């Protein structure tokens, strides 16, 4: 008799959650995703200042608009030589991490109305998508070669001391079976004016709500370096030829706001998931 009463109470609690909590939850998830998507998709340029307070290795300005870098005007000292890194006026650099981030948010918004009838599946799907997004925003490009670490107005990251993080985030899509491996590529040298010399390679990534600039000095056969300079290549291909690496980081206020919103949404999903799992396990135990 007591078991039947307990089961009845648990069923009523589950019904109350579905009636009073879930509608507001779905609405807040949809609104939060739309707000984050609008922020990250804005075409208004975000100007990022790269400075090196302890050294003068890297200094200048980078502008991001939506998922593209649209302006680069940076000076970099590599060895004894100072290079001017200036993106051509008509050129853009695609930030694949931000493009993937936008795609995931579009996918989440697409799934929400189609999965709401199946609470357990919808919550699980949202957990996976949001986990992938948060991993994507915190992914760190692995570094195995010698580099010079450059701080900026955002805290610099010691990549060699982050191996445990890299192992979890070098593939930020691993929690979704259909997702590809994140690949970091170089920028074609001819997109700059003047073009970068063939012994230099430049790449951008996103980490900890910052835009990260990675500059590589290369050594090797001229034909290999010329091939790298003409193409956008996977950073992994450069590693045998890297003699120096310089990293600079500048925190992006829009990425910071998006990260905060998505982290809050992730917490909401986890809280609702925990409540339903608790009710389900209690209901099972009462039978």
Protein model, in words:
With 287 residues, the protein is an alpha+beta fold. It has one domain. The chain is 46% helix and 21% strand. It has seven helices and nine strands. The protein has helices spanning 2-41, 96-115, 119-137, 163-169, 222-230, 235-238, 253-286, and strands spanning 46-50, 58-65, 68-78, 81-86, 93-94, 148-149, 200-207, 210-218, 242-251. Strands 1, 2, 3, 4 and 5 form a five-stranded antiparallel beta sheet that branches. A four-stranded mixed beta sheet has the order 6-9-8-7. Strand 2 and strand 3 (68-78) form a beta hairpin. Helix 1 runs antiparallel to helix 2 (96-115) and helix 3 runs antiparallel to helix 7. Mean pLDDT is 82; it is low at 142-180.
Specify the helix fraction band.
40-55%
Find the structural class using helix and strand composition.
Answer: alpha+beta
Cα separation of the termini: 11 Å
Low-confidence stretches: 142-180
Summarize the structure.
Keywords: Cytoplasm, Nucleus. The chain has helices at 2-41, 96-115, 119-137, 163-169, 222-230, 235-238, 253-286; strands at residues 46-50, 58-65, 68-78, 81-86, 93-94, 148-149, 200-207, 210-218, 242-251.
């Amino acid at each position: 008799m007591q078991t039947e009463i307990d089961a009845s109470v648990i069923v009523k609690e589950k019904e109350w959650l579905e009636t009073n909590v879930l509608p507001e939850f779905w609405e807040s998830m949809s609104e939060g995703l739309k707000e984050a998507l609008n922020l990250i998709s804005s075409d208004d340029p975000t100007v990022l200042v790269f400075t090196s307070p302890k050294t003068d290795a890297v200094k200048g300005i980078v502008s991001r608009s939506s998922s593209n870098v649209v302006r680069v005007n940076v000076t970099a000292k590599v060895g004894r030589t100072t290079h001017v890194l200036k993106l051509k006026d008509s050129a853009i650099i695609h930030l694949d991490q931000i493009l993937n981030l936008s795609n995931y948010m579009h996918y989440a918004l697409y799934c929400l109305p189609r999965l709401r009838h199946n609470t357990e599946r919808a919550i699980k799907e949202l957990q996976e998508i949001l986990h992938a997004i948060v991993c994507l925003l915190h992914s760190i490009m692995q570094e195995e070669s010698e580099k010079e670490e450059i701080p900026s107005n955002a805290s610099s990251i010691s990549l060699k001391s982050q191996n445990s993080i890299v192992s979890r985030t070098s593939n930020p899509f691993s929690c979704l079976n259909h997702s590809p491996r994140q690949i970091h590529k170089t920028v074609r040298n001819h997109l700059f004016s003047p073009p970068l010399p063939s012994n230099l390679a430049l790449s951008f990534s996103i980490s900890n709500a910052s835009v990260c600039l990675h500059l590589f000095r290369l050594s090797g056969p001229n034909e290999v370096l010329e091939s790298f300079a003409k193409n956008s290549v996977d950073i992994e291909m450069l590693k045998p030829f890297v003699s120096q690496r310089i990293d600079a980081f500048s925190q992006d206020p829009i990425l910071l706001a998006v990260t905060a919103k998505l982290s809050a949404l992730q917490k909401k999903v986890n809280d609702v998931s925990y409540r339903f799992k608790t009710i389900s396990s209690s209901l099972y135990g009462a039978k």
